Amino acid sequence: MKNLLNNDMCIIFQPYIDDVERGILEILHSAKNDIDFPDTENIIRTIVNEYSKDALFITTRVQLLLKEENFNNNDIQYYNWASTDEARRVLQERFPEVVRLLEVKKKHIVALVKEVLFCFIKDLDKLRELDFPAGNRLHEIIISAGDSHRGGKRVCFLETDKGKLVYKPRSVFIDYMAIQAASIINKGLSRDMTIIIPKVLDCGNYGWQEFVSRIPVTSKNELAMYYKSLGGLNAFFATFGGLDFHYENLTVVRNKAIPLDLETAFGEFRQARKIAGMTGITGIISQTLVLAGVDTLILPPLARNERFDIDLSPVTDGLPQESQTLKSSRISAPEAGGVEMVLENSIISKPAPFESYLELEECHPRSYVDKFHEGYKQVILAIFLYRDDLVDLLSNLSGIKNRCVIRPTSTYASFLNTSYHPNYLKSWENRKKLFGLLKFPPKVPKRIGKQALDLECESLMDGEYPYFTADILADFMSVVPNEVSQGENDSLEDFHVAPLEFLKNIDFMPLDTIRYLHYGAFAGIDSSVWATRDHGEIPPFFDLKVDN
What we know:
Layout: H1 2-5, H2 14-30, H3 40-71, H4 75-82, H5 85-94, H6 96-122, H7 124-129, E1 138-143, E2 156-160, E3 163-168, H8 173-185, E4 200-202, E5 207-210, H9 220-239, E6 250-253, E7 256-259, H10 269-276, H11 280-292, E8 321-332, E9 340-348, H12 369-385, H13 387-394, H14 409-419, H15 422-425, H16 428-435, H17 449-461, H18 470-479, H19 499-503, H20 511-523, H21 527-530
């Protein structure tokens, strides 16, 4: 993508780039009495590049079509034409949805920078009180490559003359509570096993987080400590029902695993109630799987999913995986000229937690499952030891605006990617019909399925990933008829966090069985073995026989 930013493919949306530049320059100028900007051009260039990436992703297929239809794929002729008013008129007439999306993205990115900058200025004193590196000279504002939500909100990184800090476009109160819980548990752990969570400043609808630099391990001894730390984190989040701690939400700092995003650190009440409602052998197995950390995504899945065959867990870092079911678009600018866009099998290549000079085979995760389980066990025992203190901390928990994942993010990505095909960009109605193929989200009660689906489609139409919180879903439920369908007895509170409900399970801790599950999960990391896992099948690794 970096090569494309200097490519003539950007010419056709240059007026929007100019608008972004003017908008950012105006914002920086209005803040100059409060903060110094040593390199205004660099700040603007960084933000414009991020806008250009979004614009290229939206327009590339349309531009390739126009170049082929009108100029027989002649680059020079097409780029000369793309800079004219005629090109923009054709774009407006044939693909009005492209123009609308370019305008939406432009407004969103300018509004985001304004919000981040003025929140930073407003919070300077508080940040300094907490020893955040909040200097008076702002060198750079970097908009993350992560998903865009709710009107263009994204994580941003600010670099000042004193260091870096992270802007989060959500409340970080849940992070704060996780930090408090970790401080209690750490009293029962040795220094090398303490749970470290980046410090935060919660500001209601947004927050600030300590910036953490990724530092890979440099030896096999450090790697063993890293996996031990990772096992400890798995125990920590499994105890509270935490979800979604895949490789993008965790990092390595020497020999420690550090969580970066804790918006799903505590499980929801409805999830806890579902598990508690299971009885017999099914209930025991389900409860044991949760306690083992299967839901955290830190463990590799115990069964291959037929629709999502990539393992996102940090345990498979450094092991490239090619999906047989997921597709992705790759855009490149060959040295010979022109632009290529290829639809191919998705390949996940996650960075290894160790330096490249260490041999992958010697550092294979299977060699460290004993360390992983040892770290898990140590943290679980510390949690058990200080359970009463944790209960006191969490008993009156309220005000957490937790995120609710109601549909796989991969589904949103697939639909968004498809919606940028020229056939759908011909009109607003065409893209709307595409998103109309989505059914009610699978993880919400049916009686609020329509409201949730409508909000999903609204976000997708603006090129964003839908984002739901417990408050949003509770608001939906408060306005629908109070008629409960058979088997559906969800309440307004069911979407809110309930770490205490999960903590109760600490009384049931079959460590021998959990150790067995950990070893079985690690056994499937080998690519040749992983490929044999059929949907819903665990028998190649487990032979669970229950006597009547």
